[in-house]
């Protein structure tokens, strides 16, 4: 129910789908249904805004029209839009869609706006670097000199191309060594290979006329293969001093706001290129489009800081031993790099795909546009309202805001639309939907979760997460396919249609969870898994629940296996970032808490004896939460005085390694290895005093 200051205005878009006001009212939805809210019914919205009411409009197609109307009343903050037409109305099962309609309306009208995400400030001026073959690069520089502040790096000669007569912008030549940075802060490093320094050159062309071989073109580039070393060009250049065949200061660098890369192969070979960098290749039309897009980046900008990073949870490295590199491997923009024991995220390069947060086993990287608790609250609201109004077998479909929404819209216009039980949930990037959201949604009451991978640059990480989840659910006795990654975009809407309409409902949880999804990934997974285990159908069957569920390599759950080679040196406990491996305080014992293990591999990399191995699995019992002994040993005591010296395997390993040393050639000398430091010295003194040939300290001279 809503107070008098709120109005929900629904529209069936010229009766193109069914909106039953009575059915919605029976479900507790107080709303007005219209047939042409953007046309003859527009005055009702105008009256609402004029009266100071907050209005919820079930149309996203005409947001511009309604926005203009709101501006006339200075009511831009009091009008909100949501989509019913494509998400629910236009469907072959529209007659059965009342529960989904009620759920979508409730989520759109009752949920608070998410907290703002911290922003990254970006600024770019008109400094434009153009890299490429002389003809194309200089041609674009001439055209853009009035709109940009161009600089040209010629990387390849081109026939009879001449340098501009007017020296209005820098022109260099050479080989690119590196290009790095981001919008407003690109840095180019190159090596000048042309003996003529174009920065010093006054373009008098005296060198061109002086060269007897014609090795210097009007682009003032020296063809070193044609040059015979007469050096007439050097004499012609005279006191200008622009020509030097023995130049050593060839390394150059400059900074730029924007980059137009006309190379055949782009200098930056990334899946997602940074803003302000364009690599259109040699096609003139593509080059023109690239130039136009670069002009849109001039000015000051603000973009979300898509990912939050908690260094304390990072399992990347310890003591120069590498562990987890998942985020570095999947980052499509190269925004993540190693930074000692942890990783570093460049927020200026990050474009918010969120794959890093999906594959991060510890939750050190958390996607926050939107945050998991915000998405979880939306899912919980949708599922609870859907179930309350009689809906069954709910299937949540996460999709990206642009590409995913376009695919669903195309399906609604040309195909059967979404099934009545399929509830879409929009996120910024589908790649950011990790195992915590998948299993969390199932625990909250969905019987299935799909991720529409439209717009994804690589669906493999999503498929891996879904694979871990499905293995767990099947082992718990939940029948059917619960998790599916659908690779289809707007052009492949038939594939989306087949994937959804042919998907038989799976066994859902009997009692939906009441908790909310949490900011910390491991905590959300823990809550979701405990709830799924508590209500697992396998618990009621004869075999019962398994003690552990085997998973594929790369899973974020598992145990550490220790061989007899372990000496209890405890190097692994110092390397473990999650506290899964611990040294006992009451004896020489290596303890392990399986619930904490991230399967990052730092312990394996740190073990000097190569005694550790990872075993991916999910342990279901409470034992996984308690410390259990992986390796335990007796105390080794000094053979002379009985003093405790350390763990027996560690001392025996040391003795075995030192026994072959020349200092311990005799049996007596080897016996000292089993003594404590004090007894070892005493034994050595006794040995010296009884030996006539032993050298005494007082017999030594300088």
Task: Record the SSE blueprint.
Blueprint: E1 6-11, H1 21-26, E2 32-34, H2 42-50, E3 54-57, H3 63-72, E4 79-81, H4 85-89, H5 98-110, E5 119-124, E6 127-133, H6 134-144, E7 149-156, E8 171-173, E9 175-180, E10 186-191, H7 206-210, H8 232-237, E11 251-256, E12 258-261, E13 277-278, H9 284-295, E14 299-304, E15 307-309, E16 317-318, E17 321-322, H10 326-330, E18 336-339, E19 342-345, H11 355-359, E20 365-367, H12 372-388, E21 395-400, H13 403-414, E22 422-427, H14 435-443, E23 448-452, H15 460-475, E24 483-486, H16 493-501, H17 521-534, E25 548-550, E26 558-562, H18 571-575, E27 581-583, E28 589-592, H19 602-606, E29 612-619, E30 628-632, E31 635-637, E32 644-647, H20 648-658, H21 667-671, H22 677-690
Parallel strand pairs: 1-2, 1-3, 3-4, 6-7, 6-12, 7-8, 12-13, 21-22, 21-23, 23-24
Antiparallel strand pairs: 5-14, 9-10, 10-11, 15-20, 16-17, 18-19, 25-29, 26-29, 27-28, 28-30, 31-32
Domain 4Fe-4S ferredoxin-type: 192-221, 341-370, 557-582, 586-617
Keywords: 4Fe-4S, Iron, Iron-sulfur, Metal-binding
InterPro entries: 4Fe4S_Fe-S-bd, 4Fe4S_Fe_S_CS, Fe-S_Ferredoxin
Can you give a write-up of this model?
The chain has 22 helices and 32 strands. Strand 21, helix 13 and strand 22 (422-427) form a beta-alpha-beta unit. Helices cover 29% and strands 21% of the residues. The strands form eleven sheets. It has a five-stranded parallel beta sheet, covered by helices on one side. The chain has a four-stranded parallel beta sheet with strand order 2-1-3-4, covered by helices on one side. It has 702 residues and is α/β, with parallel strands linked by helices. The mean pLDDT is 93. Residues 192-221, 341-370, 557-582, 586-617 form the 4Fe-4S ferredoxin-type domain. It holds the Pfam family Fer4_9. It comes from Thauera mechernichensis.
